[in-house]
Design brief:
hydrolase; 6 helices; eight-stranded antiparallel beta sheet; 8 strands; alpha+beta; globular; DNA damage; DNA-binding; 29% strand; 3-methyladenine DNA Glycosylase, Chain A
Length: 195
DNA sequence: TAAGTGATTTGCT
DNA sequence: GCAAATCACTTAA
């Protein structure tokens, strides 16, 4: 079952937790890549200093976050890496969940085609936000993509048993007190979780 | 550990 | 308009 609008149309922190263990599906060129979401972070617009849309700052880039829940928010960071977020809450509320890491389930060959690395370790394919985007061939063409409707990128429901760990977010030193927020979630013991 | 990388935003004109 | 600063990361040592 594909996750529907009502799943995303909730508080970003809850959506972030509930997305763990769900299946992220990417289809392209007739190939299907299925991966399990193992790590997420919540970005809560108006109050969160780490969020691009802090204090409801609305620019061309953050526009998508103000839009409908279930849309993909993809942006380029550090000049070369894409990050995948899913917009949550309702229209006008800039909230999103960053997908930080996934575990490949199906379509390893396709993943390797898009992300060629020296490392033999499977973990290195998708254990980070930029890596997973390379692996799934996600770029800005998919920005604003409707994941509750489209077939190229969406999330399937699942019933994995898992233990959720709450932690501080990382790599957002500039966010001052908000970097202490426990808005990062990951599956305990999963090898694909980034440091 | 450190540096590369360029789109985006901001703060001047 | 243009220039400078910023940055939700990765890789190779």
């Amino acid at each position: 079952m594909k996750l529907k609008l009502d799943f995303y149309q909730r508080d970003g922190v809850n959506v972030a937790q509930d997305l763990l263990g769900k299946l992220l599906v990417r289809e392209l060129d007739g190939q299907k890549i299925i991966s399990k979401i193992v790590e997420t972070e919540a970005y809560i617009g108006p109050e969160d200093k780490a969020c691009h849309a802090y204090q409801n700052k609305r620019t061309k880039r953050t526009e998508v976050m103000f839009g409908r829940a279930g849309n993909a928010y993809i942006y380029l960071i550090y000049g070369m890496y894409n990050c995948l977020n899913i917009v949550t809450a309702s229209v006008g509320k800039p909230e999103a969940v960053l997908i930080r890491a996934v575990e490949p389930i199906e379509g390893l060959d396709t993943i390797r085609k898009y992300r060629q690395i020296k490392s033999k370790k499977v973990e290195d394919l998708t254990n980070g936000p930029g890596k997973l985007c390379q692996a799934l061939a996600i770029d800005k063409k998919l920005n604003g993509y409707d994941m509750t409707y489209g077939d190229k990128l969406y999330v399937l429901d699942s019933n994995y048993k898992l233990e959720v760990v709450k932690d501080k977010r990382i790599n957002i030193d500039y966010a001052e007190e908000y970097k202490e927020k426990l808005w990062r979630f990951y599956i305990k013991g999963n090898p694909f979780v980034s440091r």
